[in-house]
Design a protein that fits this description.
Layout lengths: L1 H15 L7 H7 L4 H12 L3 H19 L4 H7 L5 H12 L3 H5 L25 E6 L2 E11 L4 H16 L1 H7 L8 E11 L2 E11 L9 E5 L2 E9 L4 H18 L8 E5 L10 E7 L2
Helix pairs in contact: 1-2, 2-3, 5-6
Keywords: DNA-binding, Transcription, Transcription regulation
InterPro entries: AraC_E-bd (IPR010499), GyrI-like (IPR029442), Homeodomain-like_sf (IPR009057), HTH_AraC (IPR018060), HTH_AraC-typ_CS (IPR018062), MarA-like (IPR050959), Reg_factor_effector_dom_sf (IPR011256), Tscrpt_reg_AraC-type_HTH (IPR020449)
Protein name: AraC family transcriptional regulator
C-alpha cells in the first residue's frame, strides 16, 4: 500500500501548508509522482481538482474562524489567500451560500469540506479484466493540443477538443490512415513537465500508422514499453471514467506496479460509443 501512503502524505502536506502559496510540483513530490499524474489521480479519486480541494478547505476553515473568533473579516480574507474582501466574499458565498457577514451573525447554513483521508477497499471489488504485454515502439499520427494542468484546465479542454475533431471530420481521416497494429482512435496523454506557466501536457487524438505522415497531421513515437491493458465495457464517457477510478483506487495499490511515466493511451475502436455494449481499452505503461 506504499502508493496509498504516498498519496496520503501529499494530502497531509497540503493540510500543513493551507495558508502558504504551495505549488502542485511540491505537492506531487510528496507522493513521488509527476505533477500531471498526481493531479489526474487526485481528480479521478476525489472528483475535484487539487486547487478545488485547497480552496474548499481554506473556505471551510475561514468559516470556522468567522463563527468562533472576533477577527476582522478583512484579516481572515488575507489569511486564507484573498487580496480583497470582495474576492473573499464572492468565493465564500459560492461555497457556503451566505456572505461572511451573515456567517458571523450565524445567519444561514455553512458547508464544511473535511480533511481527506484516503481509504482503499479491495474486498468485494468488481473484477477487472486486464492483460500485460510488452510492445516495441510504434508511431501514431494525429493532432495535438497543449493544455495547462493548472486548476484542472486540461479536464475542460480535452472534451472540447474531441468535439472539434468530430465536427471537422478529423476522426474519419484518422480511421483511414489507421494501418498500424493498434486498431482504433487513440487519446494519448504526454506529460510535458513543469514550465514557467506551470504544469502542462500534450494531448493527442491520433491513430497508429506506419509509413509517411499524412498531410495535416503530426507524428509521435510511442516508446517500447510493458503495458497493462484494461478492458472497458459500456458507454462513454462514464464507462472509461469508472475503470480509471478502479485502476487508481484498487489495481495500482495492490499490484506492486508503478506508472512508467511515458504516454498512456485510451483506445476507441469502431462502434457506437453511446452503446451499452461498446468496447474500449486503457493502456498504461508500467514498471
Amino acid at each position: 500500500m506504499a502508493w496509498v501512503e504516498s498519496l496520503q502524505k501529499a494530502i497531509e502536506y497540503m493540510e500543513d501548508h493551507l495558508l502558504d502559496n504551495i505549488t502542485i510540483e511540491n505537492i506531487a513530490k510528496q507522493a513521488n509522482s509527476s505533477a500531471f499524474h498526481f493531479q489526474r489521480t487526485f481528480s479521478i479519486l476525489t472528483d475535484m481538482s487539487v486547487g478545488e480541494y485547497i480552496r474548499r478547505r481554506r473556505l471551510t476553515l475561514a468559516a470556522e474562524e468567522l463563527t468562533r473568533t472576533n477577527e476582522k473579516i478583512i484579516d481572515i480574507a488575507h489569511k486564507y489567500g484573498y487580496d480583497t474582501p470582495e474576492a473573499f466574499s464572492k468565493a465564500f458565498r459560492r461555497q457556503h451560500g451566505i456572505t461572511p457577514t451573515e456567517a458571523r451573525r450565524n445567519i444561514g447554513k455553512l458547508k464544511s469540506y473535511n480533511r481527506l483521508v484516503i481509504q482503499v477497499s479491495l474486498k468485494g471489488a468488481e473484477p477487472m479484466q486486464y492483460k500485460i504485454v510488452e510492445k516495441e515502439n510504434f508511431q501514431v499520427v494525429g493532432v495535438k493540443e497543449e493544455f495547462s494542468c493548472n486548476n484542472g484546465e486540461n479536464f475542460v479542454g480535452i472534451p472540447k477538443m474531441w468535439e472539434e475533431v468530430h465536427e471537422k471530420g478529423t476522426v474519419d481521416l484518422l480511421s483511414k490512415v489507421n494501418n498500424g497494429q493498434l486498431k482504433g482512435i487513440l487519446g494519448v496523454c504526454v506529460d510535458k513537465g513543469a514550465s514557467e506557466s506551470g504544469q502542462s501536457i500534450d494531448y493527442w487524438i491520433a491513430a497508429a500508422s506506419e509509413g509517411d505522415v499524412p498531410e495535416g497531421f503530426q507524428s509521435l513515437n510511442i516508446p517500447a514499453s510493458k503495458w497493462v491493458i484494461f478492458e472497458v465495457h459500456g458507454p462513454m464517457p462514464d464507462a472509461i471514467q469508472n475503470v480509471w477510478k478502479q485502476i487508481l483506487s484498487e489495481w495500482f495499490p495492490s499490484s506492486g506496479y508503478k506508472h512508467a511515466g511515458t504516454p498512456d493511451l485510451e483506445v476507441y475502436p469502431d462502434g457506437d460509443p453511446s452503446s451499452p455494449d461498446y468496447y474500449s481499452e486503457i493502456w498504461i505503461p508500467i514498471k
